[in-house]
Design a protein that fits this description.
This protein folds into 2 domains: about 210 residues, Spore Coat Polysaccharide Biosynthesis Protein SpsA, Chain A, CATH 3.90.550.10; about 70 residues. The longest helix has about 35 residues. By secondary structure, it is an alpha/beta fold. About 50% of the residues lie in helices and about 15% in strands. Strand 1, helix 1 and strand 2 form a beta-alpha-beta unit. It is built from 10 helices and 8 strands. Strands 7-5-6-4-1-2-3-8 form an 8-stranded mixed sheet, sandwiched between helices. It starts with a strand and ends in a 10-residue tail after the last strand.
Length: about 325
Amino acid sequence: MIKLSCVIPCYNEEDNILPFFNSLSQTLEAAGLSYELLFVDDGSRDGSLERLRALAAEKPAVRVIRFSRNFGKEAAMYAGLRAAKGDYVSIVDADLQQPPEVLLQMVNMLEADPELDCVAAFQKNRRESGPMRFFKGAFYGLINRVAEIEFVSGASDFRTLRRNMVDALNSVTEYYRFSKGLFSWVGFRTEYIPYEARERASGKTKFSFWKLLQLAFEGIIAFTTMPLKLATVAGLLTAAVSVIYLVVVVLQKLIQGIDVPGYATIVVLILLLGGMQLFFLGVIGEYLARMYIQTKNRPVYIIKETFGGEAEEENKD
């Protein structure tokens, strides 16, 4: 019986895999936990796959899921959650920034409190620039105002879940996944603990500012219809302002004999209204595009092979 499954998304982490395994396995073995390490190779282009093959051949606790291409971290986490066998399931990155001791603390908290379903970690002191902190703060402030669920500022994917919560997350099969929102959407009692992130052992972070911005946009689209409501409000306000302006222009013409504003005013108004229309058409298009992709019922990911542990070759969505 496996007590703990660790889901480890990997993308170009060849120099981190072995140090990560040594660090995590030593901590778990010292605690006397039965465990499995489930690596998900998300289409790595370096030597990650070869390192994982060698590790899985030597260590029975290691299982590997290999994607047919890069599907992204969200898909990798979903695949790992579906394949995990443990009573508890932890999601942890392979870059050694998330200490194994914190993971063990999460497990101990779940063991001590049967009513607790999830323990999530957040960085107490983030090593980020001022603009990055500003934009992240703005995102959490905005989405918590417009979404029906709560997004905890700074909470990461680094967390440990009880089996009932894992099963609930696996039942949510939507194509566009935003796990930070899904963790809150399924409910269950969650506690948050701070941790100090270590320096990345090797390689570079996969999340640039633009990727984080895209992820934030995905979260807003996935968990609120606020942009669509904003289009309605903007349309009503524009119509109201237009009527007021029309009355003002007519009164000026009738009472003061002032000429109706001409070419410059018309051009400015056309550009303003045209720009607003195109912007909100784009917002509507984003929602429609997601509906279009969802109705195709494409799998969130494609598995090319699985190996290690007791894994058998399989190919499922």
